[in-house]
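Recall the central idea of this unit: under ordinary conditions, the amino acid sequence of a chain determines the structure it adopts. In this exercise we apply that idea directly, starting from the sequence alone.
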Amino acid sequence: MGKGEGSISDEEWERFLREAEAGAPGAPQEPSARARMVARRLREETGPPEPWRGHGPARRRGGKGWYVVGLLAAAGVLAVALAPGRLTGWFGGGDGNEGAPLAVESVRPDQPPPTEAAQLPTLERPFKGSPAARWADGTAGIGLPEARATGWMSKKQVAQALDRTRDFLAASSLSPAVLRGERPGKAIALINPHQQDVQDYLAAAFRAPSRENDPLLLFSRFDTARARLVGDVVKTRGRITYREGERGAVEVSTDVTYVYPVAPAAEGDEVTRTIVRREVVVSWDDPAKVVIEPGTFSLVSYRVDTANGGCDTFTGYLTPRFDTDGAGKGDGPEVDPYDRSTSMDARMRGAGDAGCGTASRL
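Accordingly, the structure predicted from this sequence is:
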C-alpha cells in the first residue's frame, strides 16, 4: 500500500513550505468549510445552496446513505453486502492471469467495467473474478495530471501540491495502521488546523462516531475484532484534477475507488470485498491571503459511497458482511460499485430515498 514513485522528497517539501510561509503575515481569517461550499455551489449550480450540515432525505442506494452538504460535502451511500454466492474478486496480489493491467484512469470512463465470470475469491487470489484484478495497487492506481502554473503556485509548487494530496489519500485510505483502526494522524496533520468546523468534526468523529460525525467519510478503518484484511494490497482506480479556486488557491479534486479484500477475524478461508469510492476536494491556499499552516490544505468537500461496508452502522468502522452473518439483501435498488462512469453527484441523486440496497457485484 506504499506511496507512488513520484512522491517528492521531504527536503523538497520543506523548502516549499518555507517559501509559502513567507507570505503568511497579515492574512485574513480562514473561511469555514461551510463558506467554501456555499461559494463553490453558487459557482456551479443554478439552484439555491443547501444548508450547512443540513440533512436531506436519506440516500440509500446499494446500502445505507445520507447526504450532508457543506464541509461533509454530502456524505455518502453505504451499500451492504451482496447475496451469498455472488462474491467475486479481492485484495492482495497474485491475480496476474486475470487480464492485462489497465492504464491509469485519466478521464471518466463512458461505461462500467465488463462483468467477469462468477468466481469466488480466495486467500491466495482475493481479487479473482473482480474488475479490480486488473487495477493497480495502492497509489499507483491514482492518476496525476501534468502540473502547470496555476493561481498563486508555480508549476513546481503545483506538482508538489498534487503529490501531497495523493499522500493524504494514502494516509487516509491505504495506510495499514489506519485500516487496522488506528487514528489517521498523518492524514489529519495535512488538514488546515484553522478550519474550526473541520477540527470539530474530526474530534467528534473519533470520540463519538455518529451519522453526522462519521470518520468513514474521509478514512477507511476496519474493526480487527470483526474483520481482517487479506494480503497487503489494496486495489485502486481513480484520478486527481485541479483548477484555480477562490483567492487564487489551487483547488484539487480527487475521485478514487478503493477495493479492500477482507476475511472474518476468526480463522477461516472466506473472503469478501469492501469497496469504497471517495470524492475529496481540497484547497491549497495562498498564505498571503488565507490563514493556514504551511504544508496543509483546507477541505472544501468530501463524500463517500461504500459497498459492503455496513448499513446504519455508525461505529466508526467499515463492517463487511460475511456468509456466516446470514443472508442480507437490502430493500433498495442494486448498484454496481465498480461503475465509475457515473459522477458522484449523479450517483447521489439517483439514490433517492431507497433503503439499504445490494451491490450487484463485489
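The radius of gyration is 20 Å.
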